[in-house]
Design a protein that fits this description.
With about 200 residues, the protein is of the alpha+beta class. The protein contains 3 helices and 10 strands; from the N terminus they run ααββββαββββββ. Strand 9 and strand 10 form a beta hairpin.
Length: about 200
């Protein structure tokens, strides 16, 4: 008959300790085979692919079974997007959208217009704000150069039309077969009108 002597209790404790030790080693071995770096590697691949995609809804990678896409409005990091008009000493970065929040810092891009070929539509404040990039559009003359760059796409346009349009006139922002650029800003003390400058692609 089994008796709970000091010797027997020590033996049982030893056996239990050995079983626990073996179990812990097996768990550690299994954990050691798991590649915890894989999710981070996949995230890094996604980040790298984001750098390569500029527009369109493009598949850029997966994390697990989740497909990751970049919408057109998302622009890759460090992209060069700017406008320069030497005759009025204008140099400014461009950002997507024409909200006040955007134009308080940048020249805004009309989202329904092209970024490259066709009609590129841009807008900016002309006075009364901390940043008024288009304040001197009224000084432009026909023949002045407008230099536009979007990533590796860079073109020079020549001012061809200088117009005052109704604030509801969106016709000047419609797409065109010709490559043109359209710049729009407010007219001083004329809230119902807009100043519109259009340039055609230089030969």
């Amino acid at each position: 008959m089994f008796s709970y002597t000091t010797k027997n209790i020590n033996i049982i404790s030893l056996v239990v300790s050995i079983v626990i030790f073996i179990s812990i080693n097996q768990i550690i071995s299994v954990i050691g085979q798991v590649d915890f770096s894989k999710p981070r590697i996949e995230e890094q691949k996604v980040e790298e692919n984001i750098e390569k995609n500029v527009e369109d809804n493009t598949e850029i990678g997966k994390i697990g079974n989740d497909l990751i896409t970049v919408p057109e409005a998302v622009v890759k990091k460090n992209i060069i997007w700017k406008i320069e008009i030497p005759s009025i000493s204008l140099k400014a970065d461009i950002s997507e959208g024409t909200t006040k929040e955007v134009m308080d810092k940048f020249v805004g891009h009309f989202t329904n217009t092209s970024k490259k070929k066709g009609n590129i539509g841009l807008a900016a404040h002309n006075r009364g704000y901390s940043v008024n990039y288009f304040q001197n559009l009224k000084k432009l003359k026909k023949g002045d150069e407008i230099i536009y760059q979007y990533d590796k796409f860079k073109k020079i346009y020549i001012v061809d039309k200088i117009l005052i349009i109704n604030d509801t006139d969106w016709e000047k922002l419609e797409n065109t077969e010709d490559n043109i650029i359209t710049l729009i800003t407010c007219v001083e003390n004329e809230p119902l009108y807009r100043r519109c400058i259009q340039g055609i692609e230089a030969d």
